[in-house]
């Protein structure tokens, strides 16, 4: 993997990806942040050596480099998921590339379902902790110790200082921001009523199909991390209705401006 990483990094550096400070991963239906960036360079995933390819139709599949609030940023417009047939090493490969290019902070967004019945769709949740239900770890491969500590500490996977700053910004901007636990499942099917009940018993406030693998690798690489979920549907097993994925995307797009506002104000302070 080291040789693959070196080849990918060299290609991007040749394309002008120089000394970024912040990496951003945009989740399902969350692509509007790109409109706020002064773009210096962008490249399709399919043209990047050793990069996976996004197969989900509502994920753009571009790596974007530019200026945002006075900082050099790299933005993944579209991420990878285990349910697409990728391995966990594929899913997290871009995090390793962004770290080698120079980022020290990783901000992640996702669309998720609200398990906590006091949360409403269209609101945001700051991820304070997570539960990995994807069946494996992106660090479970031979030779991982050459890239970082094998037994990575996960006692505080989300940076407390950054989370505190995000909470302060939300209060200043009158944005409803919950703080809770995110459970990451494989998907792509949505959960049954019994599964929602199980997740609630386990302590999850929201559920999705991403984010946790990237956060694990970010901690492996000693990056400062924070993640925000856009709550796109309400997962009350006693009043569960069929979910249309187009409605989830529409809700993510509707709620996204608040997430963008948080991220922009945060980046200005980093």
From TrEMBL:
Entry's Gene Ontology cellular component terms: cytoplasm
Keywords, ordered alphabetically: Glycosyltransferase, Transferase
Gene Ontology BP terms: nucleoside metabolic process
E.C. numbers: 2.4.2.1
Keyword Ribosomal protein annotated: no
CDD domains from the UniProt entry: PNP-EcPNPII_like
Pathway(s) this gene product operates in, as recorded in its UniProt entry: Purine metabolism; purine nucleoside salvage
Any GO molecular function: purine-nucleoside phosphorylase activity
UniProt enzyme class: transferase
Nucleoside phosphorylase domain mapped to chain residues: 22-268
InterPro entries: Nucleoside_phosphorylase_d, Nucleoside_phosphorylase_sf, Purine_phosphorylase
NCBIfam families attached to this UniProt entry: PNPH-PUNA-XAPA, PRK08202.1
Protein family (similarity comment): Belongs to the PNP/MTAP phosphorylase family.
Function: The purine nucleoside phosphorylases catalyze the phosphorolytic breakdown of the N-glycosidic bond in the beta-(deoxy)ribonucleoside molecules, with the formation of the corresponding free purine bases and pentose-1-phosphate.
Record-given protein name: Purine nucleoside phosphorylase
